[in-house]
């Protein structure tokens, strides 16, 4: 991509094999490709961060910003700014059509789920859970949809007028192929065949070279073929992003480590326009493109003798959830240059807690989240520059 002045990608989408769009946080850009990702140009820049982009057809797309939604009707040649109610600052939106849009706002008092049925001219608040408001929303059709906060999952069957808590937990990404069958990713991968009333954990590749086999973003190219990204493999002491794929609805998941010349440590977004043509990008403006369904599929876990898990332990923080302080313990069994970093849900680094050479031993450090908003965060332990473990924690005010 062109020089984006250090901006991180927050979302990406392709409308066909040639045309694609990405949005960034700060500086806020909309970037576009018309040749399948080989070249990108800055299409639009704005004063506030962009969080999500969604196209409902090849011409019409929407971008979520701070208290605004931007819309194009001409493939991004022009963007118009749509005002939202003064107190509405959505974390997520779902655009059903040019008239009907839902927004999820996690703010305690003024947030909740909002809907417009006239293209944004008026908005109606459909619910408010106060301290449990959602930060993610997905609608399968005009009646059936799902929302989640950091701990709970809810479903509507009547256009968002009523929401019922269901099992399964929150989601980073979710997709249904019909009113009953769907998948959701939250690091783990779950499948439902009864509209979300029950969920089955699916087994993702683990062990060997795979350091983290989770999924944070998924894409369905058919009823049975699903792609997922978020996992990391360690190859020759170097982190490599892995791409997961199933062709039988998740009964079996396999993984790809893209070509050895590609040194991308993790992928955050994946998008396919057909079974063979797809893209995977990380939050920094780098990514990969395939026209043949990716690289070799690994059906067995490969071992990597260079990784010695016995040399470190990263413990789960306590308390968890926490407000606003928590303790992180870690153990080093060899002297090493150690880094401990905190990341937000979008993968943006928010704090470095440790960054120095340490002797072997047991360490404890307090993390103070007083300046951060409620939500999911991650902390990663790096040994001699290599990310060795990552764990999730929840700041709940």
Describe the structure.
The protein has 2 domains: 9-290, YVTN repeat-like/Quinoprotein amine dehydrogenase (Methylamine Dehydrogenase, Chain H, 7 Propeller), CATH 2.130.10.10; 309-395, Sandwich (Immunoglobulin-like), CATH 2.60.40. The chain contains no helices and 35 strands. It has strands at residues 9-14, 20-24, 28-33, 41-46, 52-55, 61-65, 68-72, 80-83, 92-95, 101-105, 112-116, 124-127, 136-139, 145-148, 153-156, 164-166, 173-176, 182-186, 188-192, 200-202, 210-212, 217-220, 226-235, 238-246, 254-256, 269-272, 278-281, 287-290, 312-314, 325-332, 336-343, 349-358, 361-368, 375-383, 386-395. The strands form 9 sheets. Strands 21, 22, 23, 24 and 25 form a 5-stranded antiparallel β-sheet that branches. Strands 1-2-3-4 form a 4-stranded antiparallel β-sheet, with no helix packed on it. It starts with 8 loop residues before the first strand and ends with a strand.
């Amino acid at each position: 991509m062109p020089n984006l002045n250090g901006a991180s990608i927050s979302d990406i989408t392709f409308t066909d094999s040639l045309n694609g769009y990405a949005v960034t946080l700060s500086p806020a850009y909309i970037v576009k490709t018309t040749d399948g990702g080989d070249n990108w140009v800055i299409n639009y820049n704005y004063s506030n961060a962009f969080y999500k982009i969604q196209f409902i057809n090849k011409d019409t797309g929407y971008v979520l910003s701070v208290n605004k939604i931007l819309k194009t009707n001409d493939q991004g040649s022009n963007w118009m700014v749509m005002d939202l109610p003064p107190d509405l600052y959505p974390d997520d939106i779902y655009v059903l059509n040019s008239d009907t849009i839902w927004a999820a706002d996690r703010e305690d008092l003024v947030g909740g789920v909002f809907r417009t049925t006239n293209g944004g001219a008026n908005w109606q608040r459909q619910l408010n859970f106060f301290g449990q408001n959602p930060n993610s929303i997905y609608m399968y059709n005009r009646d059936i949809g799902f929302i989640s906060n950091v701990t709970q999952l809810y479903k509507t069957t009547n256009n968002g007028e009523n929401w019922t808590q269901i099992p399964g937990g929150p989601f980073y990404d979710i997709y249904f192929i019909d009113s009953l069958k769907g998948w959701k990713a939250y690091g783990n991968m779950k499948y439902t065949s009864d509209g979300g009333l029950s969920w089955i954990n699916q087994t993702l590749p683990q062990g060997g070279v795979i350091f983290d086999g989770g999924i944070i973003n998924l894409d369905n190219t058919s009823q049975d073929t699903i792609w997922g990204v978020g996992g990391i493999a360690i190859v020759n002491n170097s982190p490599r992003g892995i791409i997961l794929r199933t062709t039988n609805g998740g009964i079996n998941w396999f993984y790809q480590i893209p070509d050895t010349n590609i040194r991308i440590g993790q992928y955050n977004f994946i998008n396919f326009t057909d079974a063979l043509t797809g893209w995977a990008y990380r939050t920094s403006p780098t990514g990969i493109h395939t026209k043949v369904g990716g690289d070799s599929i690994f059906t067995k876990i490969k071992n990597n003798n260079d990784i010695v898990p016995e040399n470190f332990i990263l413990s789960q923080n306590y308390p968890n959830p926490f407000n606003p302080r928590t303790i992180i313990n870690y153990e080093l069994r060899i002297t090493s240059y150690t880094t401990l970093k905190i990341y937000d849900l979008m993968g943006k680094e928010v704090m470095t807690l440790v960054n120095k050479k340490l002797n072997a031993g047991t360490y404890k450090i307090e993390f103070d989240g007083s300046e951060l908003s409620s939500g999911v965060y991650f902390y990663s332990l790096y040994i001699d520059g290599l990310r060795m473990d990552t764990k999730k924690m929840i700041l709940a005010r």
